[in-house]
Amino acid sequence: MVSVRRPLPQPPPGLWERPEMTDALARRDIGAVFKIYRQWTGATQTQIAAVCGLPQSHVSDIMNGRRQVTTLEIFERIADGIDLPRGRIGLAEKPGTVPEPRSEPGSPAADVPSEIVRVYPTRAAVPGDLWRTLFAGARHQVDVLVIAGLFLPDGHADFTTVLRRKGAEGVPIRYALGDPDSPAVALRGDEEGIGDGLAARTRITLTYLASLRDAPGIELRLHASTLYNSIYRFDGAMLVNTHVYGAPAAHSPVMHLRAQPGGLFDHYAASFERVWATTEGA
To answer: Is residue 112 exposed (0-12), middle (13-18) or buried (19+ Cβ within 10 Å)?
Structure first.
């Protein structure tokens, strides 16, 4: 007998934006996600199990803390099953979500490397929840290389709290900002058309981050390098914000990468290491 997939109850608008759900997603706590989902939809464990392709006993164990979701395959089954926005738990968009590059007739088709999760046209187009999910979800490593990066502490009131918590949990955090007194920052400010404004933004960021100087697990340093990209690494995920002459980083594209041996991820990770080797304490 062929089983029929029972439809789930329609979730209420704004379910994924509710504070308790946002927190659960940032922690990738699927047990909490299931509980909140059931509370607001009335879905049964059996229904959730059916749409996610899991045994009902596994759903019960996950909800009661007896089983943890750790594999990419299961995260993807769950996201697809309950229509959970994939980016909120750091997953790549499904194939076909991002249009394939178009080529001229008669020219060979261009292959998009599979490690490119998505390309955002500007940094402002990167969902705020994706930044939160990546920072909060890191378990082994966080690296940040920017000139000012003021949008992070200025746009997320608990940014330093999240970093202090990650450092206290044993996650090494390396954070490199441009030296506001360096020629490289002055030149970049002139190129963006804001002059000393860029150095001022860097000093504001340093003020925001001052409490992290003595925080366990966090190294806050200054660099005097010419940056061609801002780099944000979270374990095996990375956001690379390109720098374009005459335009601020906020107006330039961002690549979301996932680690694959010998690919773009490693290329940018090596660039971070080269700059980090030149840094000095903030």
So the answer is: exposed
